[in-house]
Amino acid sequence: MNASADMSILSLLTHASVVVQAVLAILIILSLVSWTRIFQKFFQLKQAKRLSEDFESRFWSGAELNKLYEHAQNHREHSGTQERIFASGMTEFLKLSTRGSAEALDGVRRAMRATYQREMDNLESGLPTLASIGSVSPYIGLFGTVWGIMNAFTGLSALDNASLATVAPGIAEALVATAIGLFAAIPAVAAYNRFANDVERLSNRYESFAEEFQNILQRQRG
């Protein structure tokens, strides 16, 4: 985009009505919130996948459960979701080691399920915000466009000679609101779909691991 185009858009924005300017300000804020959430969630999920892969490689390498549990307890702050699920299950298993097999395994299942739910709530945080921005932004932009066009045509009533050149600036400034609404919505929707899919895949991964770990404990108690 050249300098003249930048100046023309800037001129349209500065001469827009107060309502349209307010709409544009809201959309810009929503866009900033959206991109902040996108970057935060991208790095969070990337780290979650990396930590899960690291723990799985150690878990399935044949390491002793007690050593894995000791490592998880000593590195709580830097452990991933899967390792925390394992640690909660192992803690309950050791606590109920003197109980019957069925009771101990039921306690393990409940402990891992509670940790799983907390971790999933953390991974899913921010997704509703992206979904809301993606859904609402186009309508906010459309409201600004409708308002701007209404003002443009209302202003024609005070003119003796109305032409396209007279109404064009008002319509153009109104359409900018729709454009910015789409600019805020499209990345939010795309990111939401991508992250929701990543979270679902991680969820399936964690649930599968929890079931496999319960089977391992059941064979040990068997």
UniProtKB/TrEMBL annotation:
Calcium is among the record's keywords: no
Chief location category: membrane
Location relative to the cell: Cell inner membrane; Cell membrane
Pfam hit, one: MotA_ExbB
Keywords of this entry: Cell cycle, Cell division, Cell inner membrane, Cell membrane, Coiled coil, Membrane, Transmembrane, Transmembrane helix
Coiled-coil annotated spans: 192-219
Chain ranges passing through the membrane: 12-35, 127-150, 170-192
Residues covered by the MotA/TolQ/ExbB proton channel domain: 81-207
Keyword Chloroplast recorded: no
Membrane topology recorded in Swiss-Prot or TrEMBL: Multi-pass membrane protein
Protein family according to the UniProt entry: Belongs to the ExbB/TolQ family.
Role noted for this protein: Part of the Tol-Pal system, which plays a role in outer membrane invagination during cell division and is important for maintaining outer membrane integrity.
Assembly description: The Tol-Pal system is composed of five core proteins: the inner membrane proteins TolA, TolQ and TolR, the periplasmic protein TolB and the outer membrane protein Pal. They form a network linking the inner and outer membranes and the peptidoglycan layer.
Cross-referenced NCBIfam families: tolQ
Protein name per the record: Tol-Pal system protein TolQ
Organism of provenance: Parasutterella secunda
